[in-house]
Specification:
The protein is α/β, with parallel strands linked by helices and 303 residues long. The protein contains eleven helices and twelve strands. The protein is 35% helix and 16% strand. α2 links the parallel β3 (54-58) and β4.
Length: 303
């Protein structure tokens, strides 16, 4: 197995992220949908290291499709403890969370999660969740995480991360979520999480709250199958989401309504970009000219 690296990153570990230097400006950048792509995550790591005052908000779906999602999410978990990264889970996180938590509690929910993983590039995720201790051990040996974590601790952390966030920067109100922000759900519980959603399902409830949760996880404007409830739009906010793949970060309006501005940051069709909340503009994270200098290492080794 192999990751993409440049020569600098081989000598860096996660402790490099927590050094604080006041000469750097404070910034917040939003990205999403890394989907196990180690080369994409490496550009984020370099960004974090180059500016110790940078915070990154990731709108879910670090796992599935490519090989290193669990490793990336383990690193995100520990970086979140230093306040450098915040993770708002997405629909692929629902798959992994329910796969682990419902396994011995509800066979139907477990089977749905398993099938979703199988259909959406999650076989490698299931494999590594089953061999979790080895994955953690390898990450510790590499220096990318600093302490051991067991599967229960890790999955509980994932399940308790809020799925929505409101923030204000540069005199602009932002509402962040994986696929769509839902004001009604946020007002019901601003810390609503995957654990809350699973508990509703375990009670065999098809409540309005669960429908709005599904909007947050799945909504795509042009796919009515993902419209589980009418949009509950946050007034006077710019919504920032991932989930719907784009070639580059772009600003649109839901339903061509100028009062519903939305920024899509899932750049699955192109180079990795983010949206810089501090300046209100998109930001290249994976410069194409530098990308061409990356090489794949021997497929037989992790590092």
């Amino acid at each position: 197995m192999g990751r993409y690296y440049n020569n600098m990153s081989k000598n860096m570990n996660s402790m490099d992220y927590i050094k604080v230097n006041p000469q750097y400006k404070k910034e917040t950048i939003v990205i999403s949908d890394l989907h196990g792509k180690a080369d994409k995550w490496e550009w984020v790591r370099q960004k974090l290291i180059s500016n110790p005052n940078l915070n990154v908000i990731i709108l879910g779906d670090a796992m599935d499709r490519q090989e290193y999602g669990l490793e990336i999410l383990l690193e995100i978990q520990q970086l979140s403890e230093y306040g450098r990264v915040q993770y708002l889970p997405g629909n692929h996180d629902v798959f992994a969370y329910n796969y682990v938590k419902a396994k011995n509690r509800n066979q139907r929910i477990y089977e749905v999660a398993k099938k979703n993983l199988e259909r959406n590039g999650g076989n490698v995720t299931m494999q590594k969740l089953e061999d979790f201790d080895k994955v953690v051990w390898d990450e510790m040996k590499s220096g990318r995480i600093q302490r051991p974590v067991n599967l229960e601790e890790f999955i509980n952390w994932l399940g308790r991360q809020p799925i929505q966030k409101i923030t204000r920067e540069n005199n602009t109100n932002y509402a962040l979520a994986h696929a769509m922000f839902d004001t009604e759900l946020y007002n019901f519980n601003r810390n609503f999480c995957l654990e809350d959603a699973l508990n509703i399902q375990l009670k065999n409830s098809s409540s309005n709250i669960l429908k709005r949760f599904n909007n947050v996880m799945w909504y795509r404007e042009k796919d009515t199958r993902t419209h589980y409830a009418p949009i509950s739009w946050p007034k006077d906010y710019v919504v920032v989401v991932g989930h719907t793949p784009q070639t580059s970060v772009n600003v649109q309006n839901i339903g061509q309504n100028p009062e519903r501005p939305i920024v899509y940051v899932d750049c699955g069709k192109g180079d990795l970009q983010g949206f810089n909340l501090t300046i209100g503009k998109h930001e290249a994270i994976e410069p194409g000219t530098i990308k061409n200098n990356l090489r794949t290492q021997d497929n037989k080794t992790w590092r």
